[in-house]
Specification:
The protein has a domain at 31-62. The chain has three helices and no strands. It has 90 residues and is an all-alpha fold.
């Protein structure tokens, strides 16, 4: 079975390409294939993990009772909080 060939030709005028090229250049010879495989698999795993987290959060939020606050309803800010915030400008 012949192995597929992949060619990476970065456009060094593109900042992302230049950054990727710099990272790849720091990988020791003989380890570049392993590095690229791991990077590709990590990207795929992150997308899968994000989808699982989003689905889980949506499912959990279905059971949460929410309370809507009227736009004209105001909540007083305690004087202690205002004093604390005013001291931050000093």
């Amino acid at each position: 079975m012949s192995r597929p060939v992949f060619s990476f030709r970065p456009n060094l005028d593109n900042g992302d390409h230049r950054k990727a090229w710099g990272i790849l250049q720091r990988v020791p010879e003989g380890q570049k294939n392993h590095f690229l495989v791991q990077a590709i698999l990590k990207e795929g795993n992150e997308e899968t993990l994000e989808a699982i987290i989003r689905r889980t959060v949506r499912e959990e939020l279905k059971g949460v009772k929410t309370e809507q606050i009227e736009a004209n309803e105001t909540r007083d800010i305690p004087d202690q909080m205002l004093d604390f915030l005013s001291q931050m400008d000093d």
